[in-house]
Amino acid sequence: MRMSTNHTKRTGEYLEGMISDYYFMQGKPKTKGSRGYSSRFLTCLQFMFVIYATSLLLYMSPSIDLRGRISQHLSKFILTPHVVSRVQDFPMIESGGCEYEKVDFEQKKSNDSVTIKMKKDLYQEVLDFQSRSIGTETLSELMAMKSKWDLKGPNLPKITVILNHFKRKTLCAQLDSLLNQTLPFHHVWVVFFGSSIGTSLKRIVKSYNNSKISFISSNYDFKYYGRFQMALQTEADLVYILDDDMIPGKKMLEILAHIAGTDKYKNAVLGSIGRILPFRQKDFAFPSYRKFRSKEAGLYVPDPAYDITVDKVVRVDFLSSSWFLSSELVKTLFIETPFTFTTGEDLHLSYQLQKYRDAGSFVLPVDPNDKETWGDSEHRLAYVSETTVIFKDIVKVRDDQWWKALSTGYITQWASMYPQSIDALFYAHSVEEVQALAPLILKLKATTGKKGYLVVSGGQFCSCEAAAPELKWSKNVCNERRFRIIDLGIHSLSGASNSEVPILQAVYASMKGIIKIHNPSVVITVSNIDSNVRKALFLATETSANGTTLVLLPRESVSKALWIADLRSTALPYWNRMKLSINIITQNRAPSLLRLLTSLNNAFYLGDTVLITFNIDSKVDEPTLQLVKSFEWAHGPKIIRRRIIQGGLIRAVSESWYPSSDDDFGLLLEDDIEVSPFYYLWIKYTVLSYYYDPKVSLPELSSVSLYTPRLVEVVKERPKWNPTEFFKKIHPNTPYLQQLPCSWGAVLFPKHWREFYAYMNMRFTENAKENPVQIPKSRTNGWQASWKKFLIDMMYLRGYVSLYPNFPNQTSFSTNHMEPGAHISAKDNIVQHDKSDFEVPLMQQDFTKLLPGGKLPQASKLPSLNLFNRAVSLKGLKAAGAKLGKDVLECQENEIVVVNHETGLPANCAAF
């Protein structure tokens, strides 16, 4: 091996350590005509020997028979009309030390009108979409854009051109074109790996005798990735990598450099030929990119056979035959180990650039009247290369590769043009996590109108093949080109490392693209997932444009949250918005308080953070103080507030909580209440369904009750009440709306509680008889010392309602034990209370199975009752309040008070 290097300076001519065997040629520029007679005679002898040796090799080579076999096989796999029936042989034209291929065949043209129309229609769809979404430019418009490279001044870019050769005889044509470019190159590296014509290529490079043209070779075949590995070594600003079938026009470097210097295209790879990958079919599967007569099979751009030309810049899914990009971007190709080294470097480059650098791939337009602006001035050469890639094994490998890319976050033109919308993505990093999530995955899949996919880490962590049996699915789903289980193949990230960075980077980059393609409302995973994976999922969801929410479920809670599958996709993104504040009012009933706290601790919270606040009146006893102090709350912060001056029940309750935002919900509990283990699930399910869902309009809903009453408490007779019997014609267990707040366990909505504060502030007096609101035939008129009386008044006047559960035997999510306190057993309370009228069973099972159709009804189908348990429409409730006409503002009979929900203060009257 002969070698000449400058050991003091690393330049484009000094390449070390990348290949096992290479040759480098350089010397002082000389004209070919200055050579002596002996040199010309020696060259002539060498040339004659090459002709003789080549003829002998061709005669003896088995490749002659191979070409015969290829021609037989090609007819079986031809998929498009423009495919040639055999590998093209090119006549050679000799000129001095060079050989030129004579292209004397016609460009293939299709006469299949159906396919032509399909392809042209799809191409027009692509162009129209890109024109609207990113903007497209003609060549003249591109050249008019401001560029960082001053091509006519001192700020010229350095460009290294890499010419990859294997068998073709096009090197001289390429070098001639490059030497005559309007923008000079920095270096040209002619590389060949394992080629049978290496000696000829070396001789041609030597004949140019140009120090900027280098010859690099290896007996080992580095295949398609070798040239990109070489590009890593360049000191230039930009790299132009060319297949041996690309002969650029003389203005090409100038055009490419200018466009690469613009703000819009500086983070891009530019080329002259590209592909748009397949679109999804009606059966939700994706066809082969070689499927014949299929609009969904994608496009080859430009495609002369179908009259597809490039008049404006086109974003494609990957480029073929030539790549122009900044030298910095080249590194991105090797972040992940390629799917295969046998083919597909073109797709892998575009995939990695988009995934990790958000860089696009663009086919540049040309001036049809100026061939010097073309990236492939003899397109027939490149077209023949395209049509010979039709062998079944190669097609299969490339189909697998692009599908792998698409399913792991590659945003193709199909994905950009047709953004999907699904309910959920489930992420599992291990088989155990698949097992934990399986009940919810299967429930979602079985729910009509719902769509969700499982994403697994892949490789050593959790492969598709390992996950499928956990869902009772065939492993064949892993071989389909349709979305069901998405295997990220995390193991493909280049290099093994003990650092958390590779996993975090791989999960984040893939999930970011997958989320952008499928636009899930939520990404659901287990709460104790690997911390680095959790960080990656958090970043991917936080940066999503559609508001995707990350849901972290404790493994033991998944089976309790199957109702997630019944939430609308519009409600799911609000999963983490609701913040519940539990506010306990207590003083001197320590045993009762302990029972309440035990029930709260035993409830299911789905991993949510819940604030608990103790509101203690001034006459608190020591056992209560000790209990509050020692109580451990694992679900969020604990706050203790104690009054100095006795406030009494009306102040203790009404002042126990005030919302900090429209997402802050208050649960007020006196210490003789006990809750069901499922109470929080009922709250979250109802609030997401009726408060957060933007498709639901129920502004009248002011609270959600945990308790189902057994008496009609606002009339003198206090008759028994059984909602299961009352609503049996609709559904015996339908939830219902009523114009009555619940004081024995209810979640109060922030907007309405602010409104109540303002109302009570305007109406509360020490002399109860001064209250102007007297609801006809209501016992509440006599509850002058009760905070609940003021809330009932406001709800009656403005038509507000609470949502009540309705299950057999009044089974509820809270119960009242009717223990002595401020009201029960009070000296001035003449009402005799039967404990059985107030204590109800607590829900101990999955309540959703009892609901109509196994889920909460639509808001419009909820029945509504007035204060006296009579069926009245929501409009009728407002009419009754307007008729009474005793609100803080004087309104007409067809109007009610409207408030400012930021302050709760009354704003004006409005018709209802």
Protein model, in words:
A 9-stranded mixed sheet has the order 21-20-19-22-26-24-27-25-29. The longest helix is centred in the first third of the chain and has 24 residues, at 37-60. β17, α17 and β18 (549-553) form a beta-alpha-beta unit. It is elongated and about 115 Å long. The chain is an alpha/beta fold and 912 residues long. The protein contains 25 helices and 31 strands.
CA-atom Rg in angstroms: 38 Å
Q: Note the total helix count.
A: 25
Taking the alpha carbons of the first and last residues, their distance comes to 93 Å
* Sheet with most strands: 9 strands, mixed
Structural category is alpha/beta
Task: Please give the share of residues in helix.
Answer: 25-40%
What number is the mean pLDDT? 86
**Strand sequence of the main sheet, in spatial order?**
21-20-19-22-26-24-27-25-29
Low-confidence stretches: 1-39, 49-96
Number of strands: 31
In short:
The chain is an alpha/beta fold.
Strand and helix layout:
Elements: H1 37-60, H2 63-77, E1 92-95, E2 98-101, H3 113-133, H4 139-143, E3 159-165, H5 171-179, E4 187-193, H6 198-208, E5 213-218, H7 226-231, E6 238-242, H8 252-260, E7 268-271, E8 273-276, E9 299-301, E10 314-316, E11 318-320, E12 322-326, H9 327-330, H10 345-357, E13 360-363, H11 379-388, H12 392-407, H13 413-417, E14 422-428, H14 431-446, E15 452-456, H15 464-467, E16 485-487, H16 501-518, E17 520-526, H17 531-542, E18 549-553, E19 579-586, H18 590-601, E20 611-616, H19 622-630, E21 638-642, H20 648-654, E22 664-670, E23 673-675, H21 679-692, E24 701-705, H22 723-726, E25 736-738, E26 746-748, H23 750-763, H24 787-798, E27 801-804, E28 814-816, E29 864-865, H25 874-884, E30 895-899, E31 906-911
Parallel strand pairs: 3-4, 3-6, 4-5, 7-13, 14-15, 14-17, 15-16, 17-18, 19-20, 19-22, 20-21, 24-27, 25-29
Antiparallel strand pairs: 1-2, 6-12, 8-9, 8-11, 10-13, 22-26, 23-28, 24-26, 25-27, 30-31
